[in-house]
Design goal:
Mean pLDDT of chain B: 89
Number of strands of chain B: 0
Mean pLDDT of chain A: 88
Helix content of chain B: over 70%
Structural class of chain A: mainly alpha
Radius of gyration of chain A: 31 Å
Structural class of chain B: mainly alpha
Distance between the termini of chain B: 56 Å
Order of helices and strands of chain A: HHHEEHHHHHHHHHHHHHHHHHHHHHHH
Number of helices of chain B: 3
Low-confidence stretches of chain B: none
Strand content of chain A: under 5%
Number of strands of chain A: 2
Shape of chain A: globular
Radius of gyration of chain B: 17 Å
Helix content of chain A: over 70%
Oligomer: heterodimer
Order of helices and strands of chain B: HHH
Largest interface: A-B, 10 and 13 residues
Largest sheet of chain B: none
Chain lengths: 647, 100
């Protein structure tokens, strides 16, 4: 078991790549830099594959496979180890992160080729891979938190990658601040876990949490508090209401970053964390309700904003927020396996959508506004066809990966609450609409760009090959769950059952129940029909009569403004939180406390000593005779005093 | 025999002259000489008390004062010569740069 014994090799490889490029890359050719970055991720991917191969040959008693390498912190009763863990959940995440990460690294060598920050980019990207792998391989919450903060740092660095653009640095700062709020909740959750269980190891905390009596419904006990605090962290990282605002702005980063960090991997860390902590959540009914409702609300909310965006990346960003909402909806209704399943398929098709969008932007010479595209289908066929596959997958066309994962989530939601199911189906319809709107605006219709200035060209091979691979995965990625439809077993759920056992149980039960098949068929219909409606609406509005959207926007001015203004949430936060905070910082903390109180004390002490010294100095005239006069006077005074006292 | 008080009055008068000269004279050499005058007025007081009390300590003090005065004269005159060489004046009112 070479790789499972030395598990640390998997995260170490990208770290070495980041260090080599970061330290020595300044003198290297671009080819050497990309060779270093690519070989480190390729080796990490191969190591992950080997680890999975070895993992599959383990006996069930050896799972979870935990390797404790050294004690990291030991203070009083607290101990945290540098310990890595592999179980079925880790395996899925490991393959998604290293696999998709590897493909996006290849793509980036093409996309970033002309960029002067080539070395910096790959150094950050490899560093991100390192932290992400630490996050998913960690065997305790503290090490997970290290990875969690690390990916946040890399996200910040890469959003602000074009740091000469004010908007990019602002977006990076925004992402950092908003994530601070979430991370604070996560940290409080960790403290409460330590207080309750005396340790942060998954292998101790989770079985014990599972063994505790559940908090009664409607009450907030310790487990519910822990779960809610962890969810605050997850909502920050995974862009859920009300902390989603940083993700759309994060599109300021280079497109491969949007694909890797802000679609496929980092933003799903919250879902992974919730699924990892499912033992806590299952015993916290209130927290589960909160997760489900927030997830569903986010899915619908973000999807409606996505309807009217004109920037191709912004549509995809809101789509990501929406799809992450689906994943939390799944977690909230107890279908953690379905959430992870959607996480995986989403990594494939959303990663692909972003890469394809990057390819479009590349072809258009940097243009991101869909209103200035159109008719690109024939010019960039590979990009078109791969993006078409991804669109079908996200819209939930039967047979594609998104179909299986989304329907599984909606089935589970229906079991818990028809309202959540209904909103989920509505969101599925909206998803189909805005995705086909994107596709039609970009690839169909009239060419709305200036042909003299824009030379549309297909991207080079190192960009198109990752697109094709991801397109295949987007199509086939869900087939593991396919037998379920024929009344068989869901292989994905079965694989995850040892970890998420309790969570996966109801899914198996509902499939296995008598007469459940027909209900299942009926339910399967609803999202597909909603998707079809969305597709036809998009087709009618953007292909059949392209004049209608403008008329529609004019006749429905108020709702349109609300949506295109993104519900003015940014403005609300600006007015309610940011401005008061800036005002307090500026007027009270800076000019008041810092300048008046602190600087005033320091400067005041200096001022008093200087002024009093200046006054006293005048007594020292340098004139010996005046000194002598003072001495004589002093002697006379003291002598007379002495005589008076004695006499 | 001359009463002790006469010597003491003479000593006080000499000391007072020394103080007045120290304060009002501008020439460093004169000031220096007024210091010597004060020292010797004190010596006179020491010696008179020594005689009237019939003790020797007063005379011992006088020797100390004479020794110190000699040393002071050596150092002080050297300083005065240097001041004159550097400043070209012996007026104490011109030698007041320390206050700046």
């Amino acid at each position: 078991m070479p790789v499972l014994t030395y598990l640390w090799i998997i995260p170490l490889l990208p770290l070495v790549g980041a260090a080599l490029n970061g330290i020595f890359g300044g003198r290297w050719q671009k080819s050497v830099i990309s060779a270093v970055a690519l070989s480190s991720t390729t080796l990490a991917f191969l190591a992950a594959l080997e680890a999975v191969r070895e993992f599959l040959s383990l006996s069930p008693s050896q799972i979870p496979w935990i390797k404790n390498y050294f004690t990291w912190i030991s203070a009083g009763g607290f101990q945290a180890d540098f310990a890595l863990q592999v179980d079925q959940l880790t395996v899925i995440m490991l393959l998604v992160v290293t696999g998709v990460g590897w493909l996006i690294h290849i793509y980036s060598t093409g996309y970033m080729h002309e960029d002067p920050g080539y070395r910096r980019f790959f150094s950050y990207l490899n560093l991100f891979m390192f932290f992400m792998l630490v996050l998913i391989l960690a065997a305790n919450y503290l090490l997970m938190f290290v990875g969690w903060e690390g990916v946040g740092l890399c996200s910040y660095l890469l959003i602000g990658f074009f740091f000469l653009k004010q908007s990019a640095t602002n977006a990076g700062n925004k992402a950092f601040w908003v994530n601070r709020i979430g991370d604070f909740g996560f940290l409080l959750g960790l403290l409460l876990i330590f207080r309750t269980f005396g340790t942060l190891d998954f292998s101790v905390v989770l079985p014990r949490a599972a063994g505790m009596t559940a908090d009664p419904a409607g009450q907030i006990g310790t487990l519910t508090t822990i779960a809610l605090l962890l969810f605050v962290g997850a909502a920050g990282k995974s862009a859920q209401l009300p902390l989603y605002v940083w993700l759309p702005d994060a599109m300021e980063g280079p497109t491969p970053v949007s694909a890797l960090i802000h679609a496929a991997t980092m933003v799903t860390a919250g879902v992974y964390m919730v699924a990892r902590s499912h033992a806590i959540f299952l015993n916290a009914p209130v927290a589960m309700q909160v997760v489900g409702v927030i997830g569903c609300a986010t899915a619908l909310f973000a999807a409606t904003i996505g309807l009217v965006q004109t920037d191709i990346k912004k549509v995809l960003a809101y789509s990501t927020v929406s799809q992450l909402g689906y994943m939390f909806l799944a977690c909230g209704v107890g279908a953690f396996g379905a959430g992870i399943f959607h996480l995986m398929t989403h990594a494939f098709f959303k990663g692909l959508l972003f890469l394809a969008a990057g390819s479009v932007i590349h072809a258009m010479g940097g243009e991101q506004d869909m209103r200035k595209m159109g008719g690109l289908r024939k010019k960039i066929p590979v990009t078109f066809w791969t993006m078409f596959m991804a669109t079908l997958a996200i819209a939930g066309a039967p047979g594609f990966s998104g179909f299986f994962s989304k329907d599984e989530i909606l089935n589970e939601a229906h079991r818990v609450s028809p309202v959540l199911w209904g909103l989920g189906v509505l969101t599925a319809g909206l998803t189909a609409f805005y995705m086909f709107r994107l596709l039609f605006l970009t690839f169909f219709g009239a060419e709305r760009y200036d042909e003299h200035h824009v030379h549309v060209h297909e991207s080079p091979k190192n960009m198109t090959i990752p697109l094709i691979v991801l397109a295949i995965l987007s199509v086939c990625g869900g087939w593991m769950a396919a037998p379920q439809l024929m009344g068989g077993a869901n292989h994905f759920q079965q694989f995850l059952a040892p970890v998420l056992g309790a969570a996966a149980e109801p899914a198996a039960a509902s499939t296995g129940s008598q007469g459940g098949g027909e209900i299942l068929q009926a339910l399967l219909g609803a999202p597909v029909i909603a998707g079809l409606l969305g597709f036809f609406l998009a087709w009618w509005l953007y292909i059949k009569s392209p004049e209608t959207p403008k008329k529609l926007a004019a006749s429905l001015a108020a709702p349109y403004k609300l949506l295109s203004g993104k519900y003015f949430i940014d403005e609300l936060y600006l007015a309610a939180i940011v401005r008061p905070l800036v005002w307090i910082s500026d007027k009270v903390l800076w000019h008041g406390v810092d300048e008046r109180a602190i600087d005033g004390t320091v400067n005041g002490v200096a001022f008093v000593s200087r002024e009093s010294g200046d006054r006293l100095r005048r007594a020292a005239t340098g004139n010996i005779r005046s000194y002598a006069t003072w001495i004589v006077l002093g002697v006379l005074v003291f002598t007379s005093l002495l005589l008076w006292m004695v006499g | 025999m001359v009463p002790t008080s006469y010597f003491l009055v003479l000593s006080a008068v000499l000391f007072g002259l020394g103080v007045i000269a120290f304060i009002f004279k501008r020439n460093i050499l004169t000031i220096f000489m007024s210091i010597e005058l004060m020292l010797n007025a004190v010596n006179l007081a020491f010696v008179s008390f020594s005689r009237s009390l019939g003790q020797l300590q007063g005379q011992v003090f006088v020797f100390f004062v004479i020794v110190v005065a000699a040393a002071e004269a050596a150092v002080g005159l050297a300083i005065i010569i240097l001041i004159h060489r550097n400043r070209g004046t012996l007026n104490v009112e011109k030698v007041d740069t320390l206050k700046d």
